[in-house]
Specification:
The complex is a heterodimer of chains A (247) and B (283).
Chain A: H1 2-16, H2 18-42, H3 52-80, H4 83-89, H5 94-123, H6 130-155, H7 161-164, H8 167-178, H9 191-197, H10 201-213, H11 218-242
Helix pairs in contact in A: 1-5, 2-3, 2-5, 3-5, 3-6, 3-10, 5-6, 5-11, 6-10, 6-11, 10-11
Chain B: E1 5-16, E2 19-30, E3 34-38, H1 45-53, E4 60-65, H2 73-77, E5 79-82, H3 94-104, H4 110-120, H5 136-148, E6 154-158, H6 166-181, E7 185-189, H7 193-196, E8 201-206, E9 209-214, H8 216-220, E10 224-231, E11 234-241, H9 243-253, E12 260-267, H10 270-282
Parallel strand pairs in B: 3-7, 3-8, 5-6, 6-7
Antiparallel strand pairs in B: 1-2, 1-4, 8-9, 10-11, 10-12
The chains are: A mainly alpha (247), B alpha/beta (283).
């Protein structure tokens, strides 16, 4: 049950750090609002466009980026402050620490996903059935969980906060350009880029979301959902294997 | 009575790249003893302690804590570790920090244990305050509380009293001595000579090697003692080793002169002896 000991500590830390909490909540809301401003600016005057193919995939990307960065920084801070090393000496196992962190940040990721989705839904006057909304939330939430796993894995490669910086654009920008979010699917990308996109969790989420907003059902996206789930499990396993419990 | 070594280090080496921090260190600390580790900055004290708790993997050699590898789960339950840096969650309260490590060790009455140890380190009144607001010395005290809360059998403390006021430091040492009497084995790295004298053994390291591993009294005996013999207004000084042996022959030389009015004995301080030992080896 030491997973829960880590989880409750992480949740307590998030709850007590009001500035961090406020920024984590306001961040997705503000960025989603900026998305609205950008799309309005790009839309010719007098044209009433629908942006189903863009809005929800971008919302997913926002949640993905924030989850990844927050978890990455939190774990690197744990390493630099030597509390990670102290946890190992106190008997924590690698899996307990990783799952504890994952569960601890899951609540925040869920809130971020719900807030960004709700805001986008009303700002862009979107209209989906309850089922579609629920499935969209499931996909975005699952992506958020994967983003936390990715943050945990990447944190293992950085010893200092400074070393984290190159890892942020290295993961985020290829995800943005090659996952089909901007290009409304990966079909128009060169074949090699489509192959590369399988290595990006956002591609699976983007495929699912695009299918759902075009009227698809759960049956249509189960392949991408399983892909996302497997991706998350692989990331967690790799994170557990690479988390160093010594210098 | 022969006591089993609670801490056993055999030919321990640790290198970072081509730089060797520990170069074949071997020593043992018997159960219930306090071993002080002394040495200049960069001597390898912190790396040694990290190797003892399993936070740093040795490049060679072997470390045993209570007969087990320090990474063994059973051994880790018995280890209390206080790193040099406070290693605390600064955005949590002192109590939350201690509770976290108490619960990590599966203490049944973690809340009570955590509150008691915080009272011992003199932070009962501030236990609900965020660690971020604490001074360096107070953070050290919280860190020590985290190391002690689960009543470990082996304590490995990296400069535990740095920044702690003298009164509290005295209290800590009384507690360490009490723990040692109860069979707890303690290894402490320190720069403070008054603390070194309170240890049962001193291990002096420099450049990743052990220069001496002896009782403080044995090291003190290596010091030069200045004897000042007063005959009326005249003073004669002599620097001798082992003054208890040298004094009778010196007095003999004076023919036990009845004019001897005063004999002053100025022992060399431990710090000076250790600095000399380290310096001599460097030549």
């Amino acid at each position: 049950m030491r997973v829960l000991v880590v989880t409750s500590r992480v949740i307590k830390q998030i709850a007590k750090d009001h500035r961090f909490l406020a920024l984590s909540v306001v961040g997705p809301l503000l960025i989603t609002y900026f998305l609205k401003l950008t799309i309005d600016a790009l839309t010719p005057v007098g044209v009433s466009g629908r942006y189903d193919n863009l809005v929800m995939p971008v919302v997913a990307a926002i949640v993905f980026f924030l989850g990844y960065i927050l978890c990455l920084l939190a774990l690197v801070r744990e390493r630099t402050s030597q509390t990670l090393s102290r946890m190992f000496v106190s008997g924590f196992q690698r899996g307990e620490i990783i799952l504890g962190y994952l569960f601890g940040f899951m609540g925040l990721a869920t809130i971020q996903a719900a807030l960004a989705m709700t805001e986008a839904y009303y700002l862009f006057n979107l209209s989906y059935s309850h089922h579609t909304l629920a499935y969209l939330f499931l996909v975005i939430w699952l992506l958020a969980v994967v983003s936390l796993s990715l943050g945990i894995l990447v944190s293992n490669a950085a010893r200092t906060e400074g070393q984290v910086v190159p890892f942020i654009p290295l993961v985020l920008l290829p995800s943005l350009f090659l996952s089909g979010i901007i290009t409304n699917g990966v079909d128009k990308l060169p074949n090699w880029a489509q192959d590369v996109s399988y290595a990006l969790p956002l591609r699976y989420a983007s495929d699912s979301i695009l299918s759902l907003v075009k009227g698809g059902s759960l049956g249509d996206i189960h392949g991408s959902l399983i892909g996302l789930l497997v991706y998350g499990l692989v990331l967690l396993s790799l994170a557990a294997l690479t988390l160093k419990d010594y210098e | 009575m022969e006591t089993r070594a609670a801490i056993s280090v055999q030919n321990l080496t640790k290198s970072f790249g081509s730089f060797a921090v520990l170069k074949g260190i071997s020593f043992e600390v018997p159960t219930g003893q306090i071993c002080g580790v002394l040495g200049p900055n960069g001597a390898g004290k912190t790396t040694l302690i990290k190797s003892l708790v399993g936070a740093s993997r040795p490049s060679g050699g072997e470390v045993k804590i209570l007969g087990n590898s320090p990474t063994n789960r059973a051994a880790r339950k018995e280890i209390g570790y206080m790193p040099q840096a406070p290693a605390l969650y600064e955005d949590l309260s002192a109590l939350d920090n201690v509770l976290f490590f108490a619960r990590a060790q599966g203490l049944k009455d973690a809340q009570k244990e955590a509150e008691e140890i915080l009272e011992f380190v003199g932070l009962k009144d501030r236990q609900h305050d965020t660690v971020y607001t604490f001074s360096g010395g107070m953070k050290q005290r919280v860190s020590l509380a985290c190391a002690l809360v689960h009543h470990p059998k082996v304590l490995l403390l990296d400069e535990p009293t740095a920044g702690v006021d003298p009164k509290l430091k005295e209290r800590f040492w009384e507690y360490f001595r009490k723990l040692a009497k109860q069979g707890v084995t303690i290894l402490i790295s320190t720069h403070l000579m008054d603390e070194a004298l309170l240890c049962d053994y001193l291990t002096i390291i420099r450049g990743g090697q052990i220069l001496a591993s002896e009782k403080p009294q044995e090291i003190m005996a290596k010091g030069e003692t200045e004897l000042r013999i007063w005959q009326g207004e005249e003073k004669e000084s002599a620097k001798v080793f082992h003054y208890t042996t040298a004094l009778p022959s010196l007095l003999q030389a004076h023919g036990l002169d009845p004019k001897i009015s005063k004999i002053e004995v100025q022992e060399e301080p431990l710090e000076s002896i250790i600095v000399r030992m380290i310096g001599e080896d460097e030549v």
